[in-house]
Amino acid sequence: MPRINSPAELEEVRKEILSKRDPNKPCITLCSGSACHASGSREVAAKLEEEIQKQGLSAEVDIRKTGCHGFCERGPIIIIRPEEICYFQIKPEDVPEIVSQTIKEKKVIERLLYTDPNTKEKIIHESEIPFYKNQGRIVFGSNVSVDPKSIEDYLAIGGYAALAKALSGMTADAVLQEVKKANLRGRGGGGFPAGTKWEGTRNAPGDIKYVIVNADEGDPGAYMDRSLLEGNPHAVLEGLTIGAYAVGAHEGYIYVRQEYPLAVENVNIAIKTAMELGLLGKNILGSGFDFTVKVHRGAGAFVCGESTALMTALEGRAGEPRPKYIRSNIVGLWGKPSVLNNVETWANVPLIINKGADWFTQIGTESSKGTKIFSLVGKITNTGLVEVPMGTPLRDIIFKIGGGIPGGKKFKAVQTGGPSGGCLPEDALDLPVGFDELTKAGSMMGSGGMIVMDEDTCMVDVARYFLEFLTDESCGKCVPCREGMRQMLKILTGITKGKGKEGDIELLEALAETAMEAALCALGKSSPNPFLSTLKYFRDEYEAHIQEKRCPALSCKELIAFYIDPAKCNACTTCARKCPSDAIIGGKNLIHIIDQEKCTKCGTCFEVCPPKFRAVTKISGVPVPPPVPEEARTIVRESKQK
Amino acid sequence: MSEVLLQIDGKEVKAKQGMTVLEAAQSAGISIPTLCYHEKLEPFGACRLCIVEVESRGSTRLVVSCVYPVEKNIIVRTRSEKVDRIRKMILELQMAHAPDAFILQDLAKEYGADKNRFEKEPSFCIHCGLCVRYCAEVKKKNAIGFVDRGIRKEISFIPEIAAKECWNCKECFPLCPTEALQAAYVLVEALAAFPSPSAEHASGK
Predict the structure, then answer these.
(1) Three-class secondary structure assignment of B124-155
(2) Helix (H) or strand (E) holding A130
(3) Do B45 and A323 touch (CB under 8 A)?
(4) Which of B62, B97, B150 has the CB atom closest to A475's CB atom?
(5) Which of A326, A476, A517 sits opposite B150 (nearest CB)?
(6) Do A482 and B153 contact (CB within 8 A), yes or no?
(7) For A145-362, which CATH superfamily applies?
(8) Would you tell me the crossing angle of helices A161-169 and A343-355 to the nearest 10 degrees?
(9) CATH 3.40.50.11540 boundaries in chain A
(10) Which of A257, A314, A467, B86 has the most Cβ atoms closer than 10 angstroms to its Cβ?
(11) What's the DSSP call for residue A100?
(12) Which CATH number among 3.40.47.10, 3.10.129.10, 3.20.20.150, 3.40.30.10 corresponds to the domain A24-129?
């Protein structure tokens, strides 16, 4: 495509692209993000291309490999347009049938449809599936329509119209005011108002300013930024360019994790094609505004998601945070004023410019506007990425969209905000999601991680797990974080191993205070959150571990024992055969006994004991009952007595 | 440079714009404990011991005085119940590594810190970074640096540079608040692989 020199030319190009596209031409959309690749979408794609060719349909059918659709639990996902037929968990062997039946014969293949687990009804269209129906996908929704490697696809859905509008019809200040008015808050963790941040940079003295995309998403289980950057890189670039124009920056950086190769690849392609079309580079759309973007790959440190550590790493030094008494929007990268926002925040900017702050502020709560993408994982039926309007109750996200807890288990807690977030109990489920609402409840929004836990999860162990993660990821510069976490982790580990003692909780609280008050950066200051929020809502579990050496969730290995209920054992011998440490004494017609000395508590016996017997149980906090005397172990079966 | 008037521990203090609260306090003869601060080096803000209370426009917060710039009319309190409690904890955490360091022992007396509060893991190094920063900022040699991160972070001499630069310098040794034990040990370890210049002479190379 030739270079586009004005907003009018952009609209011409868009018209031309759309005129070549027949909305009634069959198009097979296949999700092809990293998560989809993991579930085999590359193989499906190869088969699809092969099959379309084989059946002589190359000219009549389009294939579009898009980014993540969000419903990763059921991936790979195929949507067939224009009918919008949605198929899930596609395997390569399903492809010939899809092509011959659905594409050629226009017949729906029942077995590949989504089945509502409650009504058992088959659902054909994506928009009618509860997982999607209850979302509000204004940012993430475009992923399904765009091949991230194709700038034409992005232009076809109205891409770069916001940039054209900003550059041709708005002053830099007007753009800034619009974002400020929209009250767009940072989606990366802090929730700081983006407009205020931008304004500081714009008003800061100096000619050289920077804009930065934080794509160093490091929370365990979170992948919304990856999916956005992989699936719709132009939206992020467009937002970044608009931000650069608003603050007067001519250089931008995308700091993306080394672990996100597809995001790196797609965003580099996006930059290259945008440069060729004059949507980046010199004199963008003939406006006289110049802006270039470089991609910097991070080396895998969680702390580099912290803004000042990220900037230090960009400068080529070890990624350690700097004191923030002078904010980085005034003194940032190489000492210059720098706006740093995360991927999702930047992706919201084109929407605000296109549709206006008034439209944006209609969505959400008093203090949190727009939508938020959450990565819904853990003990949840529908794992995936969900985007909801701010203010949606947690309960709706977990039960209406997420489909509740699998296996008939009871909900226990939801962990929000990443490792330094907090766990909220059942009572807090009616809480509307929003920055201030979550903070008030003792957790935080963070970047949008949402890990659901069921009754089998030990909350002390959860705190220990996150503390372990944070200890491992601490940069080690300041004492309250490095040494404080070292000690907190030791104490928490001790508690989960039955070595907790009186005074442990108080000592943990004192260490938590030191970290919160005295640590250098936000990571250190929030590092005690996993402990504090679990203590707030699940103090009884801490006390049970310390005082009774009991794990109420029957999860901490050192505090539980496996025991076979002699009244329920049918001597089926399954557990004895499967036990990897030969710890089960039994035999035909003999009640089975677990040798507690040999038992490694792997839980195999518990899992394999047939549900009709349920003889193997877990016990905690009480002594294991003495084994049945050998002479009383023989099972006398009623049927054989007769 | 314009002057800034602030109050530290009830005393009116005149400071130059751009000074840190710690420097302003020192200029007025008010002492704030430090471990990672050195007048010849850029402020590091790592040990957090110099934490103080700052009251401005009616709200009070804790800041680290070695990096916090002076502001007009702020009220600084170098001691308070909370400040003392945090300093005590920081000292106790450090003493798990260097229980016998004199500077820590003296401060422990002042703040009532118990050197046995945490299980001992003697490593001598308390990660103040004085040796690392002195070598980089003053000597400009970068013969010693930090390796790894978090609780695995250690100081380490880079043998290739240390073999050339360290024999006649060793200026970092006396800077070490835990009596140079760690730096000396780590240097010997790093140099073990490299023949000393004198050894080279002796062997006639």
Answers:
(1) CCCCCCHHHHHHHHHCCCCCEEEECCHHHCEE
(2) helix A130-133
(3) yes
(4) B150
(5) A476
(6) yes
(7) NADH-ubiquinone oxidoreductase 51kDa subunit (3.40.50.11540)
(8) 60
(9) 145-362
(10) A467
(11) I
(12) 3.40.30.10
What residue has token string 């608003």? Answer: A246
The whole-angstrom distance between residue A597's C-alpha and the CA centroid of its chain comes to 42
- pLDDT class for B203, splitting at 50, 70, 90? very low
Distance CA A211, CA A443 (A): 29
How many angstroms away from the CA of B68 is the closest CA of chain A? 6
Closest CA to B71 of B129, B124, B2: B2
Give chain A positions within 8 Å (CB) of B69: 325-326
A413 is written with which tokens?
């807690």
Residue written as tokens 């089945």? A115
Closest CA to A476 of B103, B75, B129: B129
Closest CB to B93 among A323, A474, A484:
A484
Is there a contact between A476 and B151 if contact means CB atoms under 8 Å apart? yes
Q: Which fold has domain B3-78?
A: Ubiquitin-like (UB roll) (3.10.20)
CB neighbours of residue A5 within 10 Å? 15
Residue B1's pLDDT is what? 60
Report the pLDDT averaged over residues A196-204.
Answer: 96
Q: What is the CATH number of domain A557-641?
A: 3.30.70.20
Alpha-carbon distance A265 to A277, whole Å?
A: 19
pLDDT class for B205, splitting at 50, 70, 90?
very low
Residues of chain A with pLDDT > 70: what percent? 99
SS3 of residue B103 by DSSP: helix
- In this predicted model, what pLDDT tens digit does every residue of A519-572 receive, in sequence order? 999 889 999 999 999 999 999 999 999 999 999 999 999 999 999 999 999 999
Three-class secondary structure of residue A88 per DSSP: coil
Contacts of B48 in chain A (CB under 8 A): 478-480, 518-520
The CATH architecture to which A371-454 belongs is: Roll (3.10)
Chain B nearest-CA distance from A463, in A, is: 18
d(CA A200, CA A191): 16
Token duo for residue A164 = 């054209």
* Inter-chain touch B67–A472, beta carbons under 8 Å: no
Topology at the third CATH level for domain B130-201: Alpha-Beta Plaits (3.30.70)
Tokens of B153: 């972070």
Using the 8-state DSSP alphabet, how is residue B68 labeled?
P
Identify the band that residue B24 occupies on the pLDDT scale cut at 50, 70 and 90: very high
pLDDT in the model for residue B200: 47
Count residue pairs from A and B with Cβ separation < 8 A: 98
> Which residues of chain B have a CB within 8 Å of the CB of A299?
none
User: Closest partner residue to A301 among B43, B62, B149, by Cβ?
Assistant: B149
What ipTM does the predicted assembly reach? 0.90
Query: What residue has token string 């868009």?
Result: A14
CA distances to A59, A518, B19, B108, B159 from B83, in Å: 74, 9, 22, 14, 41
Mutate to test the interface with B, among A306, A470, A478, A501 (most CBs of B within 10 A): A478
Residue A154 and residue A146 in contact, taking contact as beta carbons nearer than 8 Å:
yes
For B60-87, give one letter per residue: b (16+ CB within 10 A) or e.
Answer: eebbbbbbbbbbeebebbbeeebbebbb
Shortest Cα distance, chain A CAs vs residue B196, angstroms = 31
Contact A185, A445 (CB under 8 A): no
Find the distance separating the first CA and the last CA of chain A, reported in whole Å: 88
Please give the mean pLDDT across all residues of chain A: 93
The dihedral sign for the CA sequence A107, A111, A117, A118: positive
